[in-house]
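[09:14] KT: can someone run the structure on this one? pasting the chain below
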Amino acid sequence: MHLIDKIYSESMKLLINKEEKKNKGQFYTPSSIANFMSRLSSVEKTDIKILDPGSGTGVLSIALCLHISENTSVRRIQLDLYENDMAVYEILESNILKEYI
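[09:31] RB: done, structure tokens below
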């Protein structure tokens, strides 16, 4: 299982039920989409900044950072994450604080 698939799967186990997500208008990027979207990125700098204004569980940001670290010469990534649902924020914080790279 790819790392992003594992993060997504574990995160989904901790989240609220589908009906509550729908009522809150929440959508979490599936790991397959996160991996696909990260491969679309093109970086030519050595230091970059990434803004994720609806971070959710961090799957998309983590996929992007992993892709960049594995396929470019970027030395530094500044990642600014925003999430307003505290239950989701706790999952995001846990996912981001894990050492993946």
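[09:33] KT: thanks! The chain has one domain: 3-97.
[09:34] RB: yep, looked fine to me
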